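## Example record

The block below lists the input lines for one assembly entry, exactly as stored, with component labels intact.
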Amino acid sequence: MTQDLEIVLKDGLAAIDKAANLTDLEETEKEYIGRKGKLSEFFKKMGAATPEEKKELGQALNKVKTELEEKVESKRSLLKKAELAEKLEKEWIDVTLPGEKPKYGHVHPLTQVYKDVEQIFGQMGFAVVDGPEVESEYYNFEALNIPETHPARDMQDTFFIDKAADEKHRRLVLRTHTSPNQIRSMETYGAPLRIIVPGRVFRYEATDATHETTFDQVEGLLIDKDISLADLKGIMVEFLSRLFGKDMKVRFRPGYFPFVEPGIELDISCPFCKVNEPCKVCKGQRYIEFMGAGMVHPKVLEYGGIDPNEYQGWAFGFGLTRLAMMKYKIDDIRHLLSGDLRFNKQF
Amino acid sequence: MKLSLNWIKQFVDLPTDLTGEQISELITLKTAEVEGVENQSEIFKNMVVGKITEIKEHPNADALKICMTDIGDQTVQIVCGGSNIKENMKVLVTLPGSKVRWHGEGDLIELSEAKVRGEKSYGMIAAANEAGLGESEGKEIMDLDHLDAEAGTPIAEALNKNDIIFDIDNKSLTHRPDLWSHYGFAREIAAITNSELKPYPLKNTETPEKGEEIKVTVKNKEIINRWSSLIVEGVKIKESPQWMKSQLESAGVTPVNNIVDITNFVMLELGQPMHAYDNHVVGSKDFTIRYAENSETLETIDHKERKLHEEDPLICSNKPLIVAGVMGGVESEINDETTSIILEAANWDATIIRKASTRHALRSESSQRFEKSLDPEMCPIAIQRAYELVQELCPEAKALGPITDISYSTPATIEIDFDPQKTNKYLGIDLEIKEMQKILESLSFKVKEDKEKLKVTVPSFRATKDVTREVDLIEEIGRIYGYEQIEPRLPNLPTHMPMQNMAREREHEAREILRSFGVNEVRNYSFYSKKDFENIFEKEENHIKLANYLSEEQTHMRVSMLPYMLKNIHKNIKNFEEINIYELGRTYKEVGEFFPAEETKIAFAYKGKNAFLKLKGILEEFFEKFAHQEFELIPNEDAPEQAHPKAAAVIKDEDSILAHLYMVHPIVLENFDLENEEVAYAEVNFAQLSHKTDHVNLFNPLPKFPDMEFDLSILIDKETLSATVEEAIQSSSELVNDVNLFDLYEGSNIPEDKKSLAYRVTLRSLERTLTDKDMADVQEQCFKNLEKIGGQVRGK
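Predicted structure tokens for the full assembly:
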């Protein structure tokens, strides 16, 4: 009987080994150690044995059973691994296939620059102010110390509206700069004043790669009791460094704008220069012209109803369009209003 | 304006180690923008006088010769095709390393040693236009036989081209009448380089004490501030000497003849525009200064017959001679036969001159200066200087009388109280009062100390307009001390929250939402054409029109964003199948007041399949996310003319229209070359929508009990609105939580006037578990409701 058991064990181990898959293995398991399997025959026969034989046979049977069970488990684990491996193999994905893209729109590059500028100045306590684009000569010129016959009117070629003039406002124009809002804000809010005015402006100027009839500017105005050109330098250094994400420098030169005195041209250190490489943007000058600025002319404060003996401050104006072109390296201003989505969708 | 450094150096001794570049930088940092620096010795580098010693035939080309040319230290072989070459001729040789323009055209090209048709050529024998030395005829090379210079002399030296020319940005001189001349700039440069300015070079040229003079009658006093003149006889008109021509040319003025050149020379040197008349042609020595009469005309020296305006200032004898300060008349101008002249230097009112020059679109060198308000003191000095030059160029010339010099209005002396403390506070610096005094004095201001302050007297040449108050002096301190010395600092101000600009913040918010929806932003012009608005059936009377415009495409301010949006679609149609765009911008409507109504709007346009519902979905979702509100959509009401009459809706917020949503009318589409396209469009009143900000999404408890769902399909008249059907379902029970259309069918198998709609209805209760009976009750009521509106529930 022990010999028979030996044979069952040997056959059983061989059959388990031979099982090609989990179903086979289950069949084999049933055949040998199932309730009606070959080992159960031996258990049944044990009833007829003497107690001593029983003990001996019992031990032998248990040993065989355990051995077969262990064998089944180890085989099962092997087969599971193999099956998993096969499954994984089958589930291969060509990861280089194009991904399914979510639909996402695009915000115009100029708008993105608007947002940057508004955010940074907002953090420095400047309020964002709006004004009309169809403006009066009074606000656009006269109240900014540019009387009708002043040669400075040549600096700004103007679109006029075909409409009878008003006694105070004179003619209607498309605003040539965002500066009229200096006066409008002084009238509305008085002093002290800390504002920026981003917006669309117009010039009667033929269009080419760098000139447009329509472009965007931002005006800045800071009026308080103790404001100097040094503060203008400080604010601009902060603004530019944040905007370009690097330490920036500014340079003042004399400039002439009738609504400021002293008048300043402000150059910025070229944000694109790299060490030991010729720079196409500044052409090796290391500085780029950036904006006009200056201390608000006492006459302009008076026009705005602010006492120049009590308050002083500065104003500046720079091109948002130009900044966008600089930031995104756009080589032709005409792209901006072209409506060509091949352009707009790049940003 | 062009400035010659050699000319300036006649009036100021500059430190010898100062380069042209450095001077340019100093001018830029302290005075005015230098737009360009032209260094002639650079331009004419490697160009020398050569002498052709021998001419040989070229073995491979008939039209070319081989010229053995002496260039000083050696004789070199140069291949040349010049038509006028001969042996022993002095020529212009451009050596390897020089930069020339082939045949005077195109870009500059650097020469190198080369072979021309197989023969070596060491540079070339050049034509004048190839070296930028004037015009050339045909194949003629530049003949330098008239020069004394030896072979090998650098051309810059031989032709006196060793100057440095600064090009100053005129705009940055708008407020500086004193800088429109070489002497003026010399004075400025002396101050910024701390050098000595020489007095203006006047010889003591005598004029007779008595004799012929111009008698001036001024009819309109406001025109003129000062008049100076002198009559000179025995003049011979000829070309000016080379030195004068070179000096004029270096300042960008073309020489004409000796007398005209002298008037221009004095203007460029001193800054006072002058005029010279032919004394025999003017006809009378009694001059009148007056406004023109409306019917008068004058032929100006540019040979244009000008109709004069009643505010044009004139100088007349017994006839109009010139438009004062603007342009001379052709009749009395200096001509080859002129022998007797009247020299005139006057000071005109800046505004009157500016208006006249603008009116006639005549920006002359003279009007450009007068409109800046010149110093009247210059008038008699200009006459003296011009007379001196006339005598130099025509030694027989003689004045017939004394210099006439009459002042009509003398500008008041300007004295300014100057507070050094305020200056420091303005500039953000800490400069001693003594330093400030020094700066002002270097700029010819007279300064007196007055306790802690200064009393400053403005020199006449700065007193006409430029420097009138304390801030003007602060600028002088700032720029000469050096703006670069101002240390950046942040303003010492209390922290404060800026006023909120809700509208602006909301614009950015709207754009972010639309970006997430896949809509693309475009920006368009604010003006369009008459055709554009006629194409969308808008009327001219709602528009404001530009008085001056650059193109017929841009004549009226837009009242609708539709035309440009359709153009945008047209532009992109070949590149994109689906076009989904919006613009956030303004419209400008004539409303019968002085200012037009500027409204901020968002316009949407969608081109692609199922356009109307696509755009409707975008709008609904946008309103929901942006304004947290569902709005009432009313079909086919108040449809604008540009809308398809059967595919339009308005979206209302209570009584006001928030948006129009429609398919664009087929005729409008055709007008924009979009026939056969389906385009949906919406224009939203953004200002109104963006006010809805006070909403907060409040928490809703999550359902504890499972939902139940059932589907239903009905057959109903085509015209019955989907909204009506949904309402019928919704109102059948409070348990109805959601109604979703999932199928719409029209076509075969169902009657032609019917459509089939299929909905999934979701039931929900927050209090209890729903039962089959609940479902049956709802269905029963729902079917009843649907039958009431003519629906036939399928498979009931």
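Residues 611-627 of chain B form the longest helix (17 residues). The two ends of chain B are 93 Å apart (CA to CA).
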